[in-house]
Amino acid sequence: MAKVLTLDEVDLEGRTVLVRVDINSPLDPINNVFLDDTRIRRIIPTLNKLTKSKVVLLAHQSRPGKKDFTSTLGHSRELGRLLGRNVKWVDDIYGKKALTAIENMEDGDLLMLNNVRMDEGEMTTKGDFVAMSETMMVQNLSMIADAFVNDAFACAHRSSPSIVGFTNVLPCVAGELMNYELSKLGQALENPKRPCIAVLGGIKVGDSVVVADNMLRGGISDHIWVTGGVANLFLHLSGIDLGELNVNFLKNEIKEKWDETVAIASALLKDFPECIIMPSDVALNITGNRVDHPLKDLPIEAPIFDLGITSIQSLSKAIKSAGTIILNGPAGVFEVSDFALGTIEMLNACAESEGYAVMGGGHTATLVSQRGLADKMGHVSTGGGASLELLAGRTLPGLASLEESAKQFRFSISKPLDHQ
User: Fold this and answer.
1) Distances (CA, A) of 100 to 52, 90, 103, 161
2) CATH architecture label of 194-354
3) pLDDT tens, 199-220?
């Protein structure tokens, strides 16, 4: 995939290294206790390769205005617990307190800065790599650092100073998690074992339609199996009357991208009619009860909450016989137990399949983790939006930054770092 510098290619011993990570984690709304520390655990391999460096961690938690928007103090403590090492923390990002703390570091030290999204420039700066490099965060931190390591794959689709601002001012290196994600997703995208199917669901319908378009037109997938809101859109466009309630729900979810999404999906139905596999039955929520109906029974003015039993069985069979499975999004409203069947059976089939099963991030990754199936999958991505963007064939700013920096700063592990 991408031509980026990796930690195996550079000599960072004794250097001050900025490491951007994504350890944005679900927190208990009452006491801010971590409900899932998966993302924190996933950055440990990178930190283990930098034990002879001065490591300065840049991270975020949520975004301004949300209830779980907090400092990174708890993250530093949790990381320290998992590592069995002291992780220092400073209530600053790039001001005097932060710079002083960095200057006082010794080789092997770990220091976490405060939530980078508490900086206005991180949230509001727009423009190219140069514009990002002119922010105070990048200007101040680059003066006392020797290299920048991007290990925040889940943020790779974001263009912000802490992700792409160091492109032209410091050697930028892919961390272990970033490199691992690119390798595993690349395995599914570049040379998939056949047959290759994509199972696309959830409510990010517009994004999933673009993924389907990229996979079919690029010859990546042999078939696209649609579930959830994605299935409802394709059923609607193929002439199935879902009822005003379900169509209006779709329009409210897709919003201003409705016309664009409909145009792409309609073209796919025209150009690849045999490749898009839609449900043959659905599960309706009728006064709180699950009621399965074949498509011929529609419309019934009740919300569609899951695949029907027949469709679940067909999808499970297809998954188990596939060489590669790329899955993103639940099959229905899994939060309601009566309508979790499609999602549960879909994930069970992936776990039982001998094929290479790649799970997108976000809800999909959380569900896989909750059900204890992660070890049975080929790859469970840490990136929700980033995974979707990559699968859709879009350029990830974080990845483009690493590629551009690699062109400018060519140094090997056997040579001293030189970025002057």
Assistant:
1) 20, 10, 5, 21
2) 3-Layer(aba) Sandwich (3.40)
3) 999 888 999 999 999 999 999 9
